[in-house]
Each structure stands twice: as structure tokens, then as C-alpha cells.
Write the C-alpha cells for this entry.
Amino acid sequence: MKTLILKIDKKNPERKKILLAANIIRKGGLVAFPTETVYGLGADALNPKAVKKIYEVKRRPFDNPLIVHIARKKDLFRLARSVPKEVKILIRNFWPGPLTLILKASKIVPKVTTAGLDTIAIRMPNHKVALDLIKACGKPIAAPSANLSGRPSPTLAQHVIQDLYGKIDLILDAGPTDIGVESTVLDLSSPTPQILRPGGITFEKLKKVLKDLVVHPVAIGKKTTILAKSPGLKHKHYAPKAKMIVVEGKNRIKKIKELAMKNIYEGKKIGILAISKQLNTLKKNCIVKFFGKNKSLKLVAKNLFKLLRELDEEKVDLIIAEGVEDTGLGLAIMNRLRKAAGYKIIN
Ligand code: TXA
Ligand code: MG
């Protein structure tokens, strides 16, 4: 299949390009499009044949449900039933934005979209291209991240090209995504709201509007014997090709340097994902990638998946990543890092 790639203006998306993309989706095709978190791979959420193609091209397990994207808040009430009272305040505060709500699904939602569950994941993205596209389709759009299953999520159109070129109809390229980690998945289908996947909206922000809020143990990203409630979280995820270790805690700089030196002596090619400037000294012997110019968690989140892909391209044998604290955006970052490392953590 030939994949068309179109640059599109992030702030003022060209109408012609939006209509072309919407037409593809209406006819049952697949379009990769930008959101504020990562690029999504979109299909008509109400067309089972089109949704099935998403699983096939991503090589995604069929038991891992998709997020349905909408452009008007009121569409939530067509897709969900028995909507709990917390929804109102949540969508007033956080939509459009990186918050996905898990609710009981209504009858119009095909089983393949929810992977056979009786719940549905819904979000309203905060990106003009995504919103215009959904409106022009006149349909909700089912979209997982536009990567091959198990690869880091795409934050640039280039990443989508790496994974899906030749397999999908169109890629809309609006440049780098802002947030860089995916949306927060919040389960509202059981009595106490529960974060299943930490993401762009932090625990602390949600806690301001929700009296009761818990974080599912799997969401923290540490190894646990408790079963994941979000099917996606039990699968291998965000894995770079190289072996990876995350080093956390107070003495992490010293430990990273020791670990790097030990592995260099063993003849290995080492990549370092660094935040602290003290790791600059490793540049002589390792490929050191800094998340950003300063220690802001926003920059770490924004650059995380891109740097994982870059280190893979360098064909390093081992990636050593500097950890951050589990607060604010740090929870989402550590969830991704720990899982990318297959839970190999030093602290
Ligand atoms: O930011 C995002 O959320 C991006 C952009 C494209 O919107 N999308 C994204 O989709 O990250 P995906 O498919 O990569 O991740 C969706 C997550 C998976 O962990 C999946 O298991 C979970 O949401 N999920 C979807 N439906 C669910 C449901 N009914 N119950 C529990 N978890 C669900
Ligand atoms: Mg994904």
C-alpha cells in the first residue's frame, strides 16, 4: 500500500487536508494523526472492519482495547451508559486534554473496539488537527498510539513512518507532539476512581477534584503479582531493542557511572539517558543523551520516547536511564522507564 504523508499546520489545519483524511476514515481506512500526547493511528470507531485493521497493522493483541476519541463533550453520552457523577467535573476541568475515562460502554460500540470488554475508553484530545479531523468525519475515532506494538510511542511523524510506512493510508505530520507521554487512563467503571495508567494529567491534579482516588499498583510500573486492569499494561511495552536498566534514588549518579564503566570494560556500547549534568563526564566513553537543557519533568516526558528510539538507532548494547521521583509527571515517566527496562531497576 502507498502511504501518503502530508504536512499540516498545527494551529490552522488546512481544510483540504482535513477533508481528505476524514474521507479516508469514513471509507474504512487508517490515518495517523497528531494529538497533544503522541501520534495516534485512527479508524472509524463504529466500523468493526476498520478497527480490526488497526490491530493487524500494529500487530496488537486483540485483547487490548482502543481509546475512542471525540471532539464534542456531549458525544460521551452516546458512547457510554450509566455515566457516574464525577464525569461532569472531570471533563469540565481536563477536556480537551490528556485524560482518558473508562466507562460502561453503550450498545453502539463494536466489541472489537473495546476488545470484548463491557467498558469503553474515551478521550477528547487537545490538538486542533485531531479535533478538526474527528468533526469532519462525523464519527468518533478509535486510535491507539501509532507505533508497532511493543515499540516506544511516536512523538514525531518520522516515528510513525519508521513503524507503519506502507501499511496505512495517510500520515498527517504536524511536527513534534507537546506532552510526549500518553494520556492518563482513569477507570470510573467501578466505585472508586482508579488511575490505570499515569499520563499527561497528574495524580495531584486529579486529586484536587476527586475526593477518592487510587493508583492501580501496576500503574506505578514496579513489578507486581497483581493483575493489570488495563489490558495494555500487562503486555510488554515501550521496549527499546537494547537491554535497559533504570537507576533511581539518591546515589544514582555514582551508581550510573560505576555501571557504565563496568560495562565499557566488558566491551559493550553504552547509551545513557541523562538528566543531571554530572553525567556529562561519561561522554568520552558512552553515548549520552540529555532529556533537556534543564531538569524539568515536562522536557523529560516530551523527549523520552524520541531518545529511546535514537539510542536504538545507535545500536547500543545497554541503555542506562537516570530515574526521577514518582511525583507529578514523574509517575508517568517512571512507569514508562521501568516498563521499557523490563523492570530492571537499581535503587
Ligand atoms: O495519549 C493517548 O492516550 C494516545 C493518543 C493517541 O490518544 N493513545 C494511546 O492509546 O496511548 P494506546 O492504545 O496506546 O493505549 C490505550 C490504553 C491501553 O493501555 C489499553 O489497555 C487501555 O488504554 N484501555 C483501553 N480501553 C480500556 C478499557 N475499556 N479498560 C481498561 N483499559 C483500557
Ligand atoms: Mg500504545
Observations:
- The mean pLDDT is 95.
